[in-house]
Amino acid sequence: MLLALLLQAAYYLTMVKIGSWLSPQQFIQGGSDALITAFSTASSTVTMPITFESLQKMGLRESSASLGALVGSNFNNDGTALYEAMSALFISQVLGQNLTLPQQFIVMLTSIVASVGAAGIPEAGLVTMTLVFSSVGLPTEYIAILITVDWFLDRCRTAINVMGDMTVSAVIDGKHRQAQDVIAAENKQF
């Protein structure tokens, strides 16, 4: 799971490098308060105002920062979706049940839907995971096995969720900062 989250973080940094005027280093440094808060609280909802403030301090436009931080914290839960899908596959392997390709597709879809419905509070993914397990006939009582590792993984996936929100804001803000600053200056004159 940790390797998958690291790959997700690498993807986000690549998107920032390709689609934004920020460098990945500026992105990580500017967003460090939000990422640390996300990791320490395991709550994207608690982190939301800090994420918004960090994005604005990085120099992103308010409209870009608000879309990523405020809307993203409710709907963009990539780390949670990844965790729920991997957990279902893990438990199916523990039970010796091979999920067919259509069942794996159902796990993927229900993980995405369940992650959107997950509250931005610690360990909410365990609650919505019942939907994922039920969708392919996995016994939900095996979710209890995951509780032993969920405390740490919840913090990691919350940080990835917040990093995803920040990435959306950076990419929406665009590739060219100078053009945006000129437009903003011109708009202030009128």
Topology:
Elements: H1 2-19, H2 24-30, H3 32-41, H4 44-57, H5 62-75, H6 78-94, H7 101-117, H8 124-135, H9 147-173, H10 177-189
Helix pairs in contact: 1-9, 3-4, 3-9, 4-5, 4-9, 5-9, 6-7, 6-8, 6-9, 7-8
What does this structure look like?
- It is a single chain.
- This protein is an all-alpha fold.
- It folds into two domains: 91 residues, no CATH class; 66 residues.
- The mean pLDDT is 87.
- Helices cover 78% and strands 0% of the residues.
Mean pLDDT: 87
Main sheet: strands, sense, barrel: none
In total, how many beta strands? 0
Total discrete domains? 2
Shape: elongated
Radius of gyration: 18 Å
Runs with pLDDT <50, length 5+? Answer: none
β-strand percent reads under 5%
SSE pattern: HHHHHHHHHH
Span of the ends, CA to CA: 52 Å
Structural class: mainly alpha
In helices, the fraction of residues equals over 70%
**Distinct helical segment count:** 10
Concise overview:
This protein has 190 residues and is mainly α. It has helices at 2-19, 24-30, 32-41, 44-57, 62-75, 78-94, 101-117, 124-135, 147-173, 177-189. It folds into 2 domains: 23-77 and 154-189, no CATH class; 85-150.
